[in-house]
Write a structure and sequence with these properties.
The chain is an alpha+beta fold. It has one domain: Trna Endonuclease, Chain: A, domain 1. Helices cover 33% and strands 17% of the residues. Strands 1-2-3-4 form a 4-stranded mixed beta sheet, sandwiched between helices. The protein is globular. The model has no long low-confidence stretch (mean pLDDT 90).
């Protein structure tokens, strides 16, 4: 049930100008992490945010602001490079055992 709550955030990437304008008007903000799992855990965290990166990319200044701010509000935030790191972060956050 918990994993059914995970969702991605429609930010980043190249878009048609019209689409970008509509997303901004709907409240999309730059720098917000890419994935959110709105499940509290046993360590008092309100949910898990994941910022996805590839290659040698690092979080931008704006992304670092969001990461710091979300952590200050009681959320877990992880920067992950690829599927395996993301999967491990989710498993660790939910304290699941891998079979």
């Amino acid at each position: 049930m918990q994993l059914a709550l995970i969702f991605s955030i429609p930010n980043g990437g190249k878009r048609h100008l019209g689409t970008a304008i509509k997303l901004k008007a709907s409240g999309t903000k730059s720098g917000i992490p890419d994935i959110f799992l709105p499940v509290a855990n046993r360590h008092g965290k309100h949910g898990l945010w994941i910022e996805l990166k590839v290659g040698k990319n690092k979080p931008t200044k704006n992304q670092l602001w969001w990461i710091h701010s979300l952590r200050a509000e009681g959320y877990a935030v992880e920067v992950c490079y690829g599927f395996e790191e993301s999967q491990a972060a989710i498993i660790n956050y939910l304290e699941l055992e891998v079979r």
